[in-house]
Amino acid sequence: MTDIELYAIASVGAMLAGGINTLAGNGSAITLTILTELLGLPPNLANGTNRIGVFTQTSVAAGVFYKNGKLNPIHVKKYLWPIFVGAIAGGVLALNVSNEQFRSVFRFMMVFMLIAVLVKPKRWLRDTDSDYKPNMFIWMPALFVIGFYGGFIQMGMGIFFLIIMVLGMKVNIIESNAFKGLVIGSYTLIVLAMFHFQGLVDWKIGSILAVGQTVGGYLTARFASKSKWADQIAYYVLIIVLVLAVAKLFLT
């Protein structure tokens, strides 16, 4: 297979990953597989290189959501700092510790997330409860932990984030996805710089994948901002992603 054919396949996969990340999460499972299995990057280099597309895709998607009235940064800024601080700490750890050992526990975390998504599905299809006041002594540490995880490995972070926002903060799933783009885009720029200065970013390969991820993110965010069925579609995509992830982790 020629380099052009490899990059073409990688770009299509990256576009799919960008769409999945925007509407649900765990699209990095696709891009990390492309980077390691198809393009032959070592795990830590793939982890850093993947952040290029994550940054461009989430930033563009957040911009589309904002333009279409699905994202109000003022309402969510209080949730931003614990995630941001956690992501920086996770990025520091990722530069010094391989995340391969963590993947053995990842399968059980995926099972937990699938159960959380399937129990009482109506909770995932409700509007944002603007009167709800979450206990920040509980949720601030939770947001820090999810930020730490995102800075460390990124894969699956979007699903964890949706579970916290939709079930814990009672925010609508599409608005949660919009906020997710803002949050991940913000901390990924810093984490990407950290990987770059350690020589753990392949800018050529990462930029090629980033084009596909960004196109997928843009198109999906545009659809999700305007479709009346967006909530239901996002929920079912989330279930499909989790079922496929659990099947892959346990059967391979």
From TrEMBL:
The keyword Transcription regulation does not apply. The keyword Aminoacyl-tRNA synthetase does not apply. This is Probable membrane transporter protein. It comes from the Bacteria. Keywords: Cell membrane, Membrane, Transmembrane, Transmembrane helix, Transport. The chain crosses the membrane at residues 79-97, 104-119, 139-167, 179-197, 233-251. It is found in: Cell membrane. It is a multi-pass membrane protein. Belongs to the 4-toluene sulfonate uptake permease (TSUP) (TC 2.A.102) family.
